[in-house]
Amino acid sequence: MTSDSVVESVAAPSPKSFPLGRLARREALAGYLAIAPWLLGFLIFELGPLLTSLYLSFTKFDVLTNPQWVGLKNWDKMLFNDRLVWHSLKVTAIYSVGAVSLGLVLGLGLALLLNQKVRGLSFYRTVFYTPAVVSGAAVAMMWLLLLNPEVGVINRILALVGIEGPAWLFDRQWALPAFIIMSVWGVGGGMVLYLAALQGVPTELYDAAMIDGAGAWPKLWFVTLPMISPVIFFNLVMGIIGSFQVFTSAYIMTKGGPANATYFFVLGIYLNAFEFLKMGYASALAWMLALIILVLTLVAFRSSGRWVHYEGQIR
After folding, report:
1. Tell me, what's the pLDDT at 17?
2. Which domains does the chain have, with CATH numbers?
3. Cα–chain-centroid distance for residue 185?
4. pTM tops 0.90
């Protein structure tokens, strides 16, 4: 046997000695078995209702009788003949801009404060995070009391400093700002993610910045924010998706009032489906919302390449 044949026999073992194909099939089978419960749940409980709602969006369906095919009439009415749809989109968009902006800024600010070495740090972190896991209905009832124009705590605090508090949920101009203020209640959820990202920033970068004479603001702007930008982007996308699905608080507290000032898009879907029994029209509205969220998410991903920096990424 020549030296070349020895090298080839060592470099290229026979399939019988190393059955890679069989191992790969076993691993694939194990993987599919592991995700089978989720796949079955998705196919049975999610994909089926999704396709059904898509079909119903082209029908007239009042739940009590069989669906009647109407083609694009629901979509035509929704896009061109229902002003309340566009009003609800305007209300939801204003809320989204305000709530998402506040959530990003305040969540990051709290994380920066709670990333310092101070006494009782675990207690403060728990205090700020706990509201994020409280039930939506309970939160809505609590804010109804806080925003009460006569006996509410917020207006009483404002009165102590000589400010006459507004009517909040009973005033058309203040109802939507009240909901934006309420959104701050759940800022602790994003704060936890920011904390994890901040603690993962290499200290060597801060040391190098200090050697170069950088102060607190340059270190924040040129080191901290770029390093945690993936988490900022994640919170941005999740915030946009969540802000377009406001329902519980609006339904419990105002039901869209006063004068449709808090008529959010998802609230309109619910009212059309379960109070007006326009299930086909509500399905069309739901698909319109899905398309809007999809477009906004794609825009966010498209723009992320300019400001989101991933570790080890070459630009």
Report:
1. 46
2. 14-56 (no CATH), 74-307 (1.10.3720.10)
3. 15
4. no
